[in-house]
Amino acid sequence: MACGLAEPVDMQVAQDELEVSGRSHSPLLAGLTGRPLPSVSLPSTTGQYVDLTEIHRAILYFYPGAMWEPEGGYDNRVLDEAQHSAFADHWHDLLALNCLAFGVSGQAANQQSVIAAALGIGQPLLCDSDRHLARELGLPTFGMEGASWYCRLTLVVNNGAISQAFYPVMSVTRSPAQAVEWMRRQRWV
Protein backbone atom coordinates (compact mmCIF):
# COMPACT_ATOMS: atom_id res chain seq x y z
CA MET A 1 0.00 0.00 0.00
CA ALA A 2 1.41 3.41 -0.94
CA CYS A 3 0.46 6.79 0.43
CA GLY A 4 -2.66 5.93 2.40
CA LEU A 5 -4.59 4.69 -0.60
CA ALA A 6 -6.34 1.34 -0.79
CA GLU A 7 -4.43 0.37 -3.93
CA PRO A 8 -1.01 1.32 -5.31
CA VAL A 9 -1.02 4.53 -7.35
CA ASP A 10 0.04 4.54 -10.99
CA MET A 11 1.61 8.00 -10.87
CA GLN A 12 1.42 8.59 -14.65
CA VAL A 13 -2.29 7.72 -14.73
CA ALA A 14 -2.88 10.04 -11.74
CA GLN A 15 -1.08 12.90 -13.50
CA ASP A 16 -2.98 12.30 -16.75
CA GLU A 17 -6.31 12.37 -14.87
CA LEU A 18 -5.41 15.67 -13.23
CA GLU A 19 -4.39 17.24 -16.54
CA VAL A 20 -7.56 16.06 -18.32
CA SER A 21 -9.83 17.20 -15.48
CA GLY A 22 -8.12 20.60 -15.16
CA ARG A 23 -7.80 20.07 -11.40
CA SER A 24 -4.54 20.50 -9.56
CA HIS A 25 -5.39 18.11 -6.77
CA SER A 26 -6.70 14.64 -6.28
CA PRO A 27 -10.33 14.07 -5.23
CA LEU A 28 -8.76 12.50 -2.13
CA LEU A 29 -7.93 16.01 -0.89
CA ALA A 30 -10.82 17.94 -2.46
CA GLY A 31 -12.49 18.49 0.92
CA LEU A 32 -9.51 20.41 2.27
CA THR A 33 -10.18 23.66 0.42
CA GLY A 34 -11.46 26.28 2.84
CA ARG A 35 -10.63 24.31 5.97
CA PRO A 36 -8.71 26.20 8.66
CA LEU A 37 -5.40 24.83 9.85
CA PRO A 38 -5.87 22.95 13.12
CA SER A 39 -4.76 24.38 16.44
CA VAL A 40 -1.39 22.65 16.71
CA SER A 41 2.08 23.93 17.62
CA LEU A 42 4.92 21.97 16.05
CA PRO A 43 8.64 22.09 16.89
CA SER A 44 10.78 23.51 14.12
CA THR A 45 14.40 23.55 13.05
CA THR A 46 14.59 27.15 14.31
CA GLY A 47 14.37 25.79 17.85
CA GLN A 48 10.94 27.33 18.37
CA TYR A 49 7.41 26.03 18.03
CA VAL A 50 5.22 27.16 15.14
CA ASP A 51 1.54 27.65 16.00
CA LEU A 52 -0.30 26.77 12.81
CA THR A 53 -3.28 28.98 13.73
CA GLU A 54 -0.96 32.00 13.49
CA ILE A 55 0.06 31.29 9.90
CA HIS A 56 -1.40 33.90 7.55
CA ARG A 57 -0.02 32.86 4.15
CA ALA A 58 2.25 29.89 3.62
CA ILE A 59 3.03 26.75 1.73
CA LEU A 60 3.18 23.59 3.80
CA TYR A 61 5.01 20.92 1.87
CA PHE A 62 4.85 17.43 3.31
CA TYR A 63 7.57 14.86 2.82
CA PRO A 64 8.28 11.44 4.36
CA GLY A 65 11.54 12.19 6.14
CA ALA A 66 12.03 8.44 6.20
CA MET A 67 15.01 6.24 5.64
CA TRP A 68 12.77 3.67 3.93
CA GLU A 69 11.11 3.69 0.54
CA PRO A 70 7.49 2.65 0.02
CA GLU A 71 6.61 0.28 -2.78
CA GLY A 72 7.56 1.92 -6.04
CA GLY A 73 10.57 3.68 -4.50
CA TYR A 74 9.52 7.25 -5.29
CA ASP A 75 9.95 8.53 -1.72
CA ASN A 76 13.43 8.57 -0.23
CA ARG A 77 15.98 10.80 1.44
CA VAL A 78 17.45 12.05 -1.86
CA LEU A 79 14.00 13.25 -2.95
CA ASP A 80 13.44 14.90 0.46
CA GLU A 81 16.66 16.87 0.04
CA ALA A 82 15.79 17.82 -3.55
CA GLN A 83 12.38 19.06 -2.36
CA HIS A 84 13.93 21.17 0.43
CA SER A 85 16.42 22.68 -2.01
CA ALA A 86 13.71 23.41 -4.59
CA PHE A 87 11.67 25.36 -2.02
CA ALA A 88 14.81 27.20 -0.88
CA ASP A 89 15.47 28.13 -4.53
CA HIS A 90 11.99 29.75 -4.69
CA TRP A 91 12.38 31.69 -1.45
CA HIS A 92 12.43 35.08 -3.24
CA ASP A 93 9.32 34.20 -5.28
CA LEU A 94 7.52 33.28 -2.07
CA LEU A 95 8.58 36.45 -0.28
CA ALA A 96 7.29 38.52 -3.23
CA LEU A 97 3.91 36.85 -2.60
CA ASN A 98 4.16 37.58 1.15
CA CYS A 99 4.31 33.82 1.69
CA LEU A 100 6.40 31.57 3.90
CA ALA A 101 7.30 27.93 3.32
CA PHE A 102 7.40 25.18 5.91
CA GLY A 103 8.46 21.58 5.34
CA VAL A 104 6.49 19.09 7.44
CA SER A 105 7.31 15.48 8.25
CA GLY A 106 7.18 13.03 11.11
CA GLN A 107 10.95 12.96 11.24
CA ALA A 108 12.47 13.99 14.59
CA ALA A 109 13.30 17.69 14.88
CA ASN A 110 16.95 17.00 15.70
CA GLN A 111 17.33 14.92 12.50
CA GLN A 112 15.64 17.67 10.49
CA SER A 113 17.98 20.29 11.99
CA VAL A 114 21.02 18.33 10.80
CA ILE A 115 19.58 18.10 7.29
CA ALA A 116 18.58 21.79 7.19
CA ALA A 117 22.08 22.85 8.27
CA ALA A 118 23.79 20.51 5.79
CA LEU A 119 21.64 21.80 2.91
CA GLY A 120 21.83 25.43 4.02
CA ILE A 121 18.08 25.96 3.58
CA GLY A 122 16.28 28.88 5.19
CA GLN A 123 12.74 27.56 5.49
CA PRO A 124 11.82 25.96 8.81
CA LEU A 125 11.16 22.24 8.87
CA LEU A 126 8.38 21.20 11.24
CA CYS A 127 8.19 17.96 13.18
CA ASP A 128 4.77 16.32 13.35
CA SER A 129 5.92 13.05 14.90
CA ASP A 130 2.41 12.23 16.17
CA ARG A 131 0.83 12.90 12.73
CA HIS A 132 -1.60 15.46 14.19
CA LEU A 133 -2.17 17.00 10.77
CA ALA A 134 -2.75 13.63 9.12
CA ARG A 135 -5.49 12.84 11.65
CA GLU A 136 -7.06 16.32 11.76
CA LEU A 137 -7.07 16.91 8.00
CA GLY A 138 -7.13 13.37 6.63
CA LEU A 139 -3.78 13.71 4.88
CA PRO A 140 -2.33 10.66 3.12
CA THR A 141 0.36 8.60 4.82
CA PHE A 142 2.05 5.29 4.19
CA GLY A 143 3.26 2.66 6.62
CA MET A 144 6.60 0.91 6.61
CA GLU A 145 8.10 -1.39 9.23
CA GLY A 146 5.54 -0.36 11.85
CA ALA A 147 5.96 3.39 11.31
CA SER A 148 3.74 5.92 9.55
CA TRP A 149 5.15 8.56 7.18
CA TYR A 150 3.63 11.46 5.26
CA CYS A 151 3.14 11.19 1.54
CA ARG A 152 4.39 14.09 -0.54
CA LEU A 153 1.77 16.81 -0.89
CA THR A 154 1.65 20.59 -0.89
CA LEU A 155 -0.91 22.79 0.83
CA VAL A 156 -1.27 26.48 0.03
CA VAL A 157 -2.61 28.44 3.00
CA ASN A 158 -4.15 31.92 2.93
CA ASN A 159 -5.70 33.70 5.90
CA GLY A 160 -5.14 30.59 8.01
CA ALA A 161 -7.21 28.32 5.75
CA ILE A 162 -6.24 25.86 3.03
CA SER A 163 -6.74 27.42 -0.38
CA GLN A 164 -5.26 24.68 -2.54
CA ALA A 165 -3.92 21.14 -2.23
CA PHE A 166 -1.48 19.60 -4.69
CA TYR A 167 -1.42 15.80 -4.60
CA PRO A 168 0.15 13.67 -5.83
CA VAL A 169 3.42 15.59 -6.10
CA MET A 170 4.73 14.47 -9.47
CA SER A 171 8.06 16.30 -9.31
CA VAL A 172 9.75 17.45 -6.10
CA THR A 173 11.77 20.02 -8.03
CA ARG A 174 8.70 21.40 -9.86
CA SER A 175 6.40 21.44 -6.82
CA PRO A 176 7.38 24.92 -5.53
CA ALA A 177 6.99 26.49 -8.97
CA GLN A 178 3.57 24.86 -9.32
CA ALA A 179 2.40 26.44 -6.04
CA VAL A 180 3.92 29.85 -6.91
CA GLU A 181 2.24 29.81 -10.34
CA TRP A 182 -1.10 28.97 -8.74
CA MET A 183 -0.74 31.85 -6.24
CA ARG A 184 0.17 34.28 -9.03
CA ARG A 185 -2.96 33.23 -10.97
CA GLN A 186 -4.94 34.11 -7.83
CA ARG A 187 -3.27 37.54 -7.96
CA TRP A 188 -1.74 37.18 -4.52
CA VAL A 189 0.62 40.12 -4.35
Tally of strands: 9
Main sheet makeup: 5 strands, mixed
Mean pLDDT over all positions: 83
Q: State the CATH architecture.
A: 3-Layer(aba) Sandwich
Q: Give the end-to-end Cα distance, rounded to a whole number of Å.
A: 40 Å
**Apparent shape:** globular
CATH fourth-tier homologous superfamily? Glutaredoxin
Could you tell me the CATH topology label. Answer: Glutaredoxin
Strand line-up in the sheet with most strands: 5-4-3-8-9
Strand content is 15-25%
| Helix coverage percent | 25-40%
Which radius of gyration do the C-alpha atoms yield?
A: 15 Å
Domain module count: 1
Q: Give me the number of helical elements.
A: 6
CATH class: Alpha Beta
Describe this structure in words.
The protein has one domain: Glutaredoxin (3-Layer(aba) Sandwich). It is built from six helices and nine strands; from the N terminus they run H-E-E-E-H-H-E-H-E-H-E-E-E-E-H. With 189 residues, the protein is α/β, with parallel strands linked by helices. Helix 4 links the parallel strand 4 (100-105) and strand 5 (125-127).
Q: Summarize this, please?
A:
The chain has 189 residues and is α/β, with parallel strands linked by helices. It contains six helices and nine strands.
Tags for this entry?
Glutaredoxin; single chain; alpha/beta; 5-stranded mixed β-sheet; 9 strands; 189 residues; two-stranded antiparallel sheet; 22% strand
Task: Give the secondary structure arrangement, pairings included.
Layout: H1 11-21, E1 41-43, E2 49-51, E3 57-62, H2 77-89, H3 91-96, E4 100-105, H4 109-119, E5 125-127, H5 132-137, E6 141-144, E7 147-150, E8 153-158, E9 161-166, H6 175-185
Parallel strand pairs: 3-4, 4-5
Antiparallel strand pairs: 1-2, 3-8, 6-7, 8-9
